[in-house]
Design a protein that fits this description.
The complex is a heterodimer of chains A (443) and B (252).
Chain A: H1 9-13, H2 17-26, H3 35-51, H4 67-70, E1 75-76, E2 98-103, E3 106-108, E4 120-124, H5 132-137, H6 148-156, E5 161-165, E6 175-181, E7 187-197, E8 202-211, E9 218-228, E10 233-240, E11 246-256, E12 261-268, E13 274-283, E14 289-298, E15 303-312, E16 318-327, E17 332-341, E18 349-357, E19 364-373, E20 379-387, H7 391-398, H8 404-420, H9 426-439
Parallel strand pairs in A: 1-7, 2-6, 5-7, 6-8, 7-9, 8-10, 9-11, 10-12, 11-13, 12-14, 13-15, 14-16, 15-17, 16-18, 17-19, 18-20
Antiparallel strand pairs in A: 2-3, 4-5
Helix pairs in contact in A: 3-6, 7-8, 8-9
Chain B: E1 2-11, E2 14-24, E3 29-33, H1 40-48, E4 53-62, E5 65-66, H2 72-77, E6 80-83, E7 90-94, H3 95-109, H4 117-130, H5 135-139, E8 141-142, H6 148-162, E9 166-170, H7 178-191, E10 197-201, H8 206-210, E11 215-220, E12 223-228, H9 231-239, H10 243-251
Parallel strand pairs in B: 3-10, 3-11, 6-9, 9-10
Antiparallel strand pairs in B: 1-2, 1-4, 4-5, 7-8, 11-12
Helix pairs in contact in B: 6-7
Classes of the chains: A alpha/beta (443), B alpha/beta (252).
Amino acid sequence: MSGLITNNMSTIVANSLFEQLTSAFHTLEDTNESPALKALRQEAYTRFEKKGFPTVKNEDWKYTNIHSLVNKTYILNKDVDVANLDLAKADIPGLDAHRIVLINGQYVLAFSSLEDELGIVVKPIEEAEGEEAFQKHFAQHADKTDSALVALNTALFTSGLYLSVAKNKVVSKPIQIVHVATGEEDFFVQTRNLYVLEANAEAEIIETFITSDGSAYNLNNKVTEIVLEENAKLQHYYLQQASDAGHYINHTEVYQTRHSLYNNYNCNFPGVSFVRNDINVRLDAENVESHLYGVNLLADRQLVDNHTVVDHMKPHCESYEWYKNIPQDEATAVFNGKIFVREDAQKTNAFQQNNNLLLGEKSAVYTKPQLEIFADDVKCSHGCTMGQFDNEALFYLRSRGISEESARVLLVHAFAFDVTSRFSNDAVQAYVEDLVEKGLYSE
Amino acid sequence: MLTIKNLYASVEDKQILKGLNLEVKAGEVHAIMGPNGAGKSTLGNVLAGRDSYEVNGGEALLEGVDLLEMSPEDRAREGLFLAFQYPVEIPGVSNINFLKTAVNDIREYKGLPPMEAKEFLQMVKEKQKLVEFSANLANRSLNEGFSGGEKKRNEIFQLAMLNPKLAILDETDSGLDIDALRIVAKGVNELRSKDNAFVVITHYQRLLDYIVPDFVHVLYDGRIVKTGPKELALELEEKGYDWLRELDAQNA
């Protein structure tokens, strides 16, 4: 991988990230990766080069302009300083969990406590090539989408996490993955993760995103592929708590087989400037169940865009999606929920709901449910609501002696409760409810 | 306890209250009756501080404290309670959590520490008996899916929990069948004491059979035009309100 450590010259010569990446790719040939991986990278790079970064002319990026993010230069792949790292921001009260720390995408073993768990393999993705599951699944799922950013990640990722849970293994406690962004000059990071749960395995993964104090502007292009084999169960949390220096483009591709269960809880809070999440779930066998939940409390001029795809490929599957957006100030929330029900996928049960509580006079929500149904015996529903604070409810609460601030907290709490009450982990639920409360401005 | 002097209030530039005077002493129950549009509900809402109502003159003092300059929550903390004509449904806010927040916010205002959980639950248990309010209802979302009667009983339950100095019941009898009316009235009667007072706003004399007032006031065109003993309610029931027009004209 050392070949990827870029000559810093490119930050001077290049005008844009694209140019930097182009020159970075040409230094790749010197690495000692396998021919198979090199071929994958080459093929992905060709795709990226052809497509380039998406613009607002692309329907999927209509409201989410990355122009200013990619028309600048960054430090690429700088070695990180592990000393004096403050991880307290990622602490979740009452949560007993294994902890894995990735600094700018690089796996830092020292903070982990997973040694005692048999049946779990955790290693840097750049050392995982020899793993059977890696050979079977790496770049076999996310790269099937036509995402230019996934292609870019495959072509040029430098680090990330490989995690597999062996057959029948139920992980004894949650695994918290802390993603720390830190750097003194503007930097670009590409993290690549692969999580594989073998048959009947069960795990709970909590991914927390934080920024170290005073860190420079950073852009993170992260791809996570997740494979759930037969009857595997994964509870998967994203807690986005980065600072306004942070800009994130995350692609999560989930591939599910028979009787598996995947639950995603995607939570974004005030701070981080820009987030684009693509969460795609492929239900490629019978009796698969998937739940996608979202709570997005935004403030200032944040933009958080959640694009989801629930792809019903086979019969007798169930999906359930519920996203709540609460933009304050001048924040923008985007929700785009695609549900595909393919011709084979009879007896599908798919539910989608998006509720929005606009608290800022200049806040905005763009929401689009998108259902494409090719089977004829299915149950699909979707709904969307837009609203503001209910003044009647506020007055009612205040007339009982409750302060305006507490009344707002109660009402927002109630708004989010449909989703937070479904969290599988009580400590995380309480933590998220607390972050929602803290993130609310009393005006 | 409550002193209202020459109160003027309007909604959307429409003058509703036109110089209302009222004096309520501790231990008393006052009934306010009157035709539609006379300003009965406006009085309750203005006192509680609903912001769509504008006060154009006069004053309202609760034990000497000027209510009209205060936020709705501070009025409640000073001891005012409005039982709503149409209690609001708030899905996702549990009745109990709501009451705990209210009780403790009021205690904080008075410089008291939060109530112990055990003590709070004991009080809930005791007070819900007063209005035959089941634990099931108390634990549900605030008023969500409650019947009309359950909502009104919940208002009296809240009243019992918050123990205000002055309670205004805004048409608490509307939409109640006779059994629910009895339960609500029984609750109110048990809460009556020499230290608190009630203002009962109603269209109908029926409620006053159960909550017997010390005084009956007739509100007409934004003013109290007649005050009498409880028998006045019967007279109004019999004669209607038309004859008041002449009375109002004479007073003016």
